[in-house]
Amino acid sequence: MNYNLGKKRTTLTQFDKLITQVALRQARLFIKI
């Protein structure tokens, strides 16, 4: 159980990082335009 929870947490953190990177890219493009 703990292993599965930890795995989900890690995947969530990686997913959050990916979302933040995409959001930053979109923000940069918006600022450029």
Automatic annotation (TrEMBL):
Q: Which domain of life is it from?
A: Eukaryota
- Recorded protein name is Uncharacterized protein
- Recite the lineage of the species: Eukaryota, Metazoa, Ecdysozoa, Arthropoda, Hexapoda
